[in-house]
Structure formats: C-alpha cells, structure tokens
C-alpha cells in the first residue's frame, strides 16, 4: 500500500511568540497566520513482506534503516521521523512495528521561519492516518504533533505551526493554559487575497537559523517578568487583534503599517531576532520604496515578508538582487493537510 500527504507552510502575519509557554499560559496568546502553496511532502510505502523500517529525508540527503524491533531510539538524525513512527505504533498499533518506508521532502529549508519542522511532523501523521485509517480530527492531529515535538523530542517552540498547517487558510488562533487552543477560520474575500499577494514579497534571507536561542530568551523574560521584553510581547499580542480587524475590513494599507509596528515590537522581545544581515535587507528594501516588513517565524534568519506598493515592487527586488538571499513566488492556500492513497 502507498499513501501520500502534503501540508502547507505558513506565514506568521501577527502575534508570533505569544503561543509560547509560559506566556500563553499566563496571559493568553493570539496569532494571525495564513498558509501558502509551499509544502512538506510525505510518501509511505507499507510492504508486509519486508522485515525493516526505512526513512529517507530526500531534501536533507539523510536516511535511516532499522529492523522491525519496536520503538526506535530518538537520537542523532531524523529524530522527527523516528518520534512520529514510535508514537503511531505505541498509541495506534498496539506496539506492533510497521514495515514501512517513509520518504519526505520540504519546499523550504529547515530554519525557514515558515514552520517547516512542525509541518513535516503533521504531514507524516496525516500519511499514517490515511495508511491505518486512524480516527483523528484536525485538533487531534495538531495536538499530537505538538506533543511529539515538545515532549517526545524535547524541542523548544510554540503551538501555532501545527494548527496552521492542519487547518489551512487564514486563521486567528487563541492559546491558553493547559494546552487549550481555539482556531477561528477567517473568510477573506478573493479580491483582498489577490491584493495581499500583489503587495507581499517573500524573501529568503539566505540564512537558516535555529529558533531555540530566541525562544529561550522569550521564555526567560516571561518567567522573570522582565519588564521591557514582556511589555513588548503584550504589544505583539494586541497588534494581532488589530491586524485581524484590518484584514476583515479589507484595509491592506492599515495592515502594512501594523506590520512594521509588529516588527518593532517583536525585535524588542529578544536581541537575537534581528541581525546585521536582516538590518541590511531592511535598509535596502525600505530605501527602495518598501512600506514595511517583518520576519516570519522566530527571527534570526529564514524568510522575510516585505510589504510594497506593486508599482515599486521591481525597484525593491532590484535593490535586493546582489545579496545572497532570493525571492520566492507564492500564493495563499485555503486547504490544510491532505492525504490520499495511490
């Protein structure tokens, strides 16, 4: 049997970081995000005549092989692949190993700021769900992915990515204590989506980054009640509410201004969010006519979103042309994770 799945990456439009514990546990977090037509892909082949399990991360040029011996050690490479496999056989296959070959690849590199790691976990769960006909709804899949990353793999991070890719589309998400999450889908007119796509440049800085240091800073500031960064986090959350209102009222110009306010507030939550390269990109883009910009994801590198008048788009792209980064074309998508049998 062969199954495939794909799950969309997301742009964090506002509120990023407020989905982190302990901030969302103490104060409640809010995030506005939207999925785009860049994906994490998975194919699973199950052959009962085989006596082993194999994982191939084709974009990373990494692979892992094991005999059918039960739970796999979660160490070294392909940790996410092993952890998802372990949880599936432990929770849904009575501990019995599965003779599967799993192939994955992602349209964006790790550390992209588009939620690629969490998206990969969700797309693997989605494939196993189809393979084994598992009774998992959207909230179940997202919650399971979060639990695998944070508890089984002990990886730092927030909650938005798992829910964004599972549900898909434009969503306003609320995060509370005890892992309570509410996903509010937003119905956005096609004309507004078209205008957003015409005004947004998605620019890869050329630098992949680990979000762990930034996340650790934000967690420490919340725990210590460090006044300035904590106040900045409150502002980031408030701007998410305002960004949602602008979007629902078709105020793209207002969104652009809030974008920059959100970027300034985000930078104040951790000194690791901006870098000399990011400042250089910002200076180049703004000098060429960009209206505003911000990093998607934790910061430190990855993808940037740049708001620009469509008439000045070419000028901004030209101003960035000699840097090491690159522009990626994209469209917003309405579908979340999908899986199907071949």
Automatic annotation (TrEMBL):
Gene3D superfamilies the record matches: 3.30.230.120
GO BP annotations listed: GDP-L-fucose salvage
Keyword terms of this UniProt record: ATP-binding, Kinase, Nucleotide-binding, Transferase
Superkingdom to which the source organism belongs: Bacteria
Every GHMP kinase N-terminal domain range: 83-169
Residues in GHMP kinase C-terminal domain copies: 248-320
Pfam families the UniProt entry points to: GHMP_kinases_C, GHMP_kinases_N
One GO molecular-function entry: fucokinase activity
SUPFAM superfamilies per record: GHMP Kinase, C-terminal domain (SSF55060), Ribosomal protein S5 domain 2-like (SSF54211)
Family, similarity comment: Belongs to the GHMP kinase family.
Protein name: Dehydrogenase
